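Researcher: I've been going back and forth with a colleague about how Thiamine biosynthesis protein ThiS might be arranged in three dimensions. Neither of us has a model we trust, so I'd like an independent prediction. The organism is Vibrio renipiscarius, in case that matters for your notes. Sequence below.
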Amino acid sequence: MNVMTIYVNQTPQEITGGGSLENVISLLGLPHQSCVFAIKNQVVPRSVWASTLLCEGDEISLFQAIAGG
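Model: Here is an independent structure prediction for Thiamine biosynthesis protein ThiS. You can compare it with whatever you and your colleague have in mind.
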């Protein structure tokens, strides 16, 4: 299996093989409720997480909704 490095909120993460954004979210135990993910500053709609393949060096940003008043 290939090991590749991706970055989640600027923190390097090594993952085995490639994979979809959806798989990486699950593998790394990232929150997914009320969250938005962006790859290389482009928001990825939840409807395409499963078909969005990640590559070596991809930069993923995770934004969580915050309730306020």
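Researcher: What would you highlight for our discussion?
Model: I'd start with this: The mean pLDDT is 90. After that, consider the following. The chain is about 10% helix and 40% strand.
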